[in-house]
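Exercise 7. Given the components listed, write out the predicted structure of the assembled complex. Treat all entries as one system.
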Amino acid sequence: MDDSVKSLLQRLIRRIPSQLLKTTLEKWGRLTAEQQQSLDFTQSKWMLTENLLAMCEENECTLRHIAELEVTYIMDYPNQGMWYAYQLMDPEDDAHCVELIQFKEQFKTHLRELVRHVSIIIKKHTDEAAWIRIAWGDTYTRPSHMKPTYIVHYLQSPYVFVSNLTSKNKPLLSQALLLSTRYQAIKDANLSGRKLTAIRDLLMRQYQQVFPTKYPSPLAEENQSITNPQIEKEQDKNAANRLQLAREAFGDGTLPQLQSAVYKLETKFRDQTNKTMTARDEPFKCVVKFASTNLLESLRDCASSGFASAPVTPLLSSISLKGKNYFVITDNGPGAATQTRRSQN
Amino acid sequence: MRMSLLKPFSKLPGLNTANILLVEFEELFQQSLADALVEETAVTVNVRLAKNLPLPKENEEVRPRIDLVVFIINMTSELSFQSAEASLKYLDSGFFLGKVCFMVTNARNASVPTQRLDSVRKLAASLHCSLLFAEDQTPEGVTNAAERLLTILKVSAGLVPMTTALYLSNLTRCTVPPDIDQPTFD
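Answer.
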């Protein structure tokens, strides 16, 4: 086992928290049952690393095996690093028939045509998503495993989630993806975040949605903390209305844990009391960022408690309805929010 | 606009009953205060809760005569104050003869700007209303606030002999010191 393999393993073990290490190693499956049993996870990380190095040496683990361990870990705990969502556009006729084996072969072939030295691992997750790990090299250098790119693609859907991609490698990845998924273009979905599960659930609408109805179910009974007949709420209906509008805008139940939303404003300054600013012709550029541990829940709460006026302004409800958290607002209206942030080529 | 005014004397009072309306934008303190108020045994206390005025027209028929309107203002929130101020115009002027009072929470909080407290005092003084300060975080604070409200409520409902709401409000109404607009030491 050469030094690069050892150092990769050391870095990886250091990165994985001790309590998750046991299950991750079991799932990896490269240690024998006795080796797995002999590991004492109450020891210090340093001791564990030494023991694991020895075992991997014994089992003659290669760089690829260690990379697979990393994939196993990230697949189970994907909520780290920054993930960016992309959408594939203009499908060819057979785009919907692409299944995993075909996708794997095609992707590997096309990427290897574009980059001489590249290490690709593709695995299928339990929820049918294709997980791809790419260690990039170039024409003359071997792939570097220090900063691999991760891609998650749900086949049969046009959505791709990417983490750790440099701008240099972006066109290569786009090309390989388009050819293997049988789409013609890829665009930035303007949605990013640290929690893959959150942005995935938001974009693919995996949360409880509420549709406008003329006769909503009796909501007022849910909030019946007051049962004393001497106490009466005057504005029950208003409160129920606000709650319904908030749920329609953002959804019901547990919402995806989105953590920020950014609005880039390029509109003219509008405060009439400030003549110097309104006299300017150029737009007033500013960036507004909303951040929270659970942004969508806070916005829904703002709307249902009356802090934000009901019905909810489309600027805020677009986050859920369009599945984006980056908006560019110009004076022509929020239609400009569909502009791509980076040029795609 | 005229139809949505809440009127103090357009309905008949109930026997040994007092009705209080708590108006609070946050809709938090009013819940615990209501629970404490209904525990009164000598008089039947009915509590109506609202976020702001005007009150919905649908409840007009069913609503009893309101004896006391309490505006609960959270000093740490400008929105709370503005909401209370905006609600005032939906009260008939008859209420301001001792049937309205202001209850303020979090007045000691360090983040409250002094101008806001001064504005509340000026508002209460200009309307000849009492200004009460309450502590809403502990059960004792809630009980204490409820007791003080009950004292005023019983008078406003006409249940205390030889006293009227107008008489009491003359004694308890908020006044502002003549130097309120002078800069302070802060």
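Discussion: The interface with chain A takes residues 21, 25-27, 31, 34-35, 38, 44-51, 55-56, 58-59, 63, 79 of chain B (CB under 8 Å). Strands of chain B lie at 17-24, 44-50, 68-74, 100-105, 130-134.
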